[in-house]
Amino acid sequence: MRILVVEDEVKTADYLRKGLSESGYRVEVALNGLDGQQLIQTQAFDLIILDVMLPGLDGWQLLQNIRQTSQTPVLFLTARDAVEDRVKGLELGADDYLVKPFSYAELLARVRTLLRRGPPRESAEFQVADLQLDLLRRQVTRQGERINLTNKEFALLHLLMSREGEVLSRAFIAAQVWQMNFDSDTNVVDVAIRRLRAKVDDPYPQKLIHTVRGMGYLLGEQP
């Protein structure tokens, strides 16, 4: 299980890294909101532990950005103990809220509870409009016609369809499909998207893969 800790207090961040690592988790730490966002966009985590008062991008803003593209469990760990802060955090999409100073035993119990919920079981079949993907058979069809894809094209389409309607950044796509850190000078994602469009979109009147300028790509029906 991989946990991201976004915490600007170095002593607290080190304490969390040490404790959670000794409890068997793989832990990454970001000391500000912008670095946290970069890690979230390029890597997959099972849980995010998030402070509210962060430099660069505060926890409220970061959570809102997370919820635009992901349902990864988020635990707020913060000194903000007012009832309205707790309510705000939960309404923005946090899964739990723990106030500092905290007991590590309680934190660990909450972490384990959130991780036990686990992500929803992934379907083996996906359908968007007339486009279908069968994960077990590794088969893609549109309007009943078989579409032959390379392994990377299939992985890219699977990623897009499994996150239907979500804007996926180039960095996130590169990390998930090619297991690489995205270099802005590399156009591997754009080239792959063009090739995929040529097979699943260009021959058909309804386009399903869309470019979101300055952000990335999404797959879905557009009004």
UniProtKB/TrEMBL annotation:
Keywords: DNA-binding, Phosphoprotein, Transcription, Transcription regulation, Two-component regulatory system. PROSITE patterns: OMPR_PHOB, RESPONSE_REGULATORY. CDD domains: REC_OmpR_CusR-like, trans_reg_C. Residues 123-221 form the OmpR/PhoB-type domain. This is Heavy metal response regulator transcription factor. The modification 4-aspartylphosphate is found at residue 51. It holds the Pfam family Response_reg. Residues 123-221 bind DNA. Residues 2-115 form the Response regulatory domain. It comes from the Bacteria. InterPro entries: CheY-like_superfamily, CusR-like, OmpR/PhoB-type_DNA-bd, Sig_transdc_resp-reg_receiver, WalR-like, WH-like_DNA-bd_sf.
